[in-house]
Every structure is written in structure tokens, then in C-alpha cells.
Write a structure and sequence with these properties.
By secondary structure, the protein is α/β, with parallel strands linked by helices. It has 6 helices and 7 strands; from the N terminus they run αββαβαβαβαββα. The chain has a 5-stranded mixed sheet with strand order 5-4-3-6-7. Strands 1-2 form a two-stranded antiparallel ribbon. β4, α4 and β5 form a beta-alpha-beta unit. The protein starts with a helix and ends with a helix.
């Protein structure tokens, strides 16, 4: 009985070590989303310029919905790449989704860093983001012409992610 008393904590410790070791090799960008291949949630959000945009307004075009905020350091890291894509002539509509931000800070951020977006939705409360399953900023959704979410990038968009994962999907959807 005394041996069992020492063996149980050792087994628990080994189990936790194996669990943590396996976790070292998981890619945090590969968090499964229940919304992939499902219609994007209905939304009606104001834009930074004051109009209201709904999901229906974006039907008929493939678009990237990029969740960002001025307080987000990783967004600052990815932003130059969105500017680069726009400057390279990427035709895909880029929708900025300003998440839980103060309007003046978001406007100043875009003024300083540039604006790659065709339209910028504002979700100051973050309530609409819940329907999209947003974990935090940055995240980017690829949404097809029928309003169906086809892919989700968690974390910053990089050249590697764009070329390897996103661009092939966007190119395929644009041809449909």
C-alpha cells in the first residue's frame, strides 16, 4: 500500500508531462472553427464613415474579413502585409473589422499606418464578433460569393500564410 501511495503521484506527473510535451508540437493557428463551410452570421454594422453594411451588401464577391484593433500589437505586425497586398493589386475585397476599439484611436491608427481596406466595419462592443467565433485580434476569414466562410486564419496574416493557405483558396473561389 505504501508503494502505491508514491506510484500514483508519479503516474499523474508523467501523464501531465506527456500532455504538455504533445502540446509543444501543436500549431495554435490550427484551432478548428465550427463555422468553416457554413454561412457567415448575419450582421448589420456601422462603418467608420457612418453607413451601415450588412452581410447581404457583401454577397456576390469573395472577401477577406480582417479582425483588427489599434490596441492589438499583432495587428500592427500584420498590417504592412495587407498594405503590400493592396499595392500589389490583389483584387479580393478587403473588409476591415475594427474590434472593440475606440473610433478616434482606430482612425489615427489608419492615418499613420495606411488603409488597405475597401470598407471598415465597426464593432465597438464586440457583440457581433461572438457570432463569428472571434477569439481575439487579429483573425482573418475568407468568405465566398455566397457568404459562406471557407477559411479562417488565427493570428497575423503573413506572406507564408497568404501564399500557402489563403491565396489558393481565394483564387479558387474567384474562379467560381
Amino acid at each position: 500500500m505504501l508503494r502505491l501511495k508514491y506510484l500514483i503521484p508519479l503516474l499523474i506527473f508523467l501523464f501531465v508531462c506527456v500532455f504538455l510535451f504533445v502540446g509543444l508540437y501543436l500549431d495554435p493557428r490550427k484551432v478548428p472553427s465550427a463555422l468553416i463551410d457554413k454561412p457567415a452570421p448575419e450582421f448589420s454594422l456601422p462603418t467608420m464613415s457612418g453607413e451601415t453594411v450588412t452581410k447581404k451588401d457583401l454577397l456576390g464577391k469573395v472577401y477577406l474579413l480582417n479582425v483588427w484593433a489599434s490596441w492589438c500589437e499583432a495587428c500592427r505586425y500584420e498590417h504592412p502585409y495587407f498594405i503590400q497586398l493592396k499595392n500589389e493589386g490583389v483584387k479580393t475585397t478587403m473588409v476591415g473589422y475594427n474590434y472593440r476599439d475606440k473610433p478616434a484611436q482606430a482612425a489615427r491608427w489608419l492615418q499613420v499606418l495606411g488603409n488597405p481596406y475597401d470598407v471598415i466595419l465597426v464593432d465597438a462592443s464586440g457583440k457581433a464578433a461572438i457570432d463569428f467565433g472571434v477569439y481575439g485580434a487579429p483573425e482573418t476569414f475568407v468568405i465566398d460569393k455566397k457568404g459562406v466562410i471557407r477559411y479562417k486564419v488565427i493570428g497575423p496574416m503573413t506572406e507564408e500564410v497568404w501564399k500557402k493557405d489563403v491565396k489558393p483558396i481565394v483564387d479558387m473561389l474567384e474562379k467560381q
